[in-house]
Design brief:
Layout (H helix, E strand, L loop, with lengths): L6 H16 L5 H4 L2 H21 L2 H27 L5 H26 L2
Length: about 120
């Protein structure tokens, strides 16, 4: 599958695996509220990236803007998870670094789509 060669897809895929690896350390109460929302957002981003990679460039910008919105929601929810102490600082920093990198890649994709 060619979409699996897209760097942003690989990065978000790895991000989900990271969230998943943290899941068992999350209390049951938090796992089924905020944490579930966070995981769902990451999965939606994966789905949207696959969709954006398979549509004509003329249809791509709307999907990329939706991904950008979901990525911003993800940033806020991850920060909230740190502030309510679902995540410790070290895990938060690792996640935030990954989310920032995905944001940079997404920004580049949006920019290149706009110039076409």
């Amino acid at each position: 599958m060619e979409e699996l060669d897209i760097p942003i897809f690989k990065k978000v895929y790895e991000l989900y695996k990271l969230f998943y690896s943290y899941r068992n350390n999350i209390s049951k109460q938090d796992r089924y509220t905020l944490w579930q929302k966070i995981e769902t957002l990451v999965l939606e981003i994966i789905e949207s990236i696959l969709l954006a990679s398979s549509v004509p460039k003329s249809d791509r910008l709307t999907i990329l803007e939706k991904i950008s919105l979901n990525l911003n929601k993800l940033r806020i929810f991850v920060r909230l998870a740190k502030e309510v102490r679902i995540l410790d600082n070290q895990k938060y920093l690792v996640l935030q670094e990954n989310i920032d990198e995905i944001g940079r890649q997404l920004g580049g994709w949006i920019k290149s789509t706009k110039t076409v």
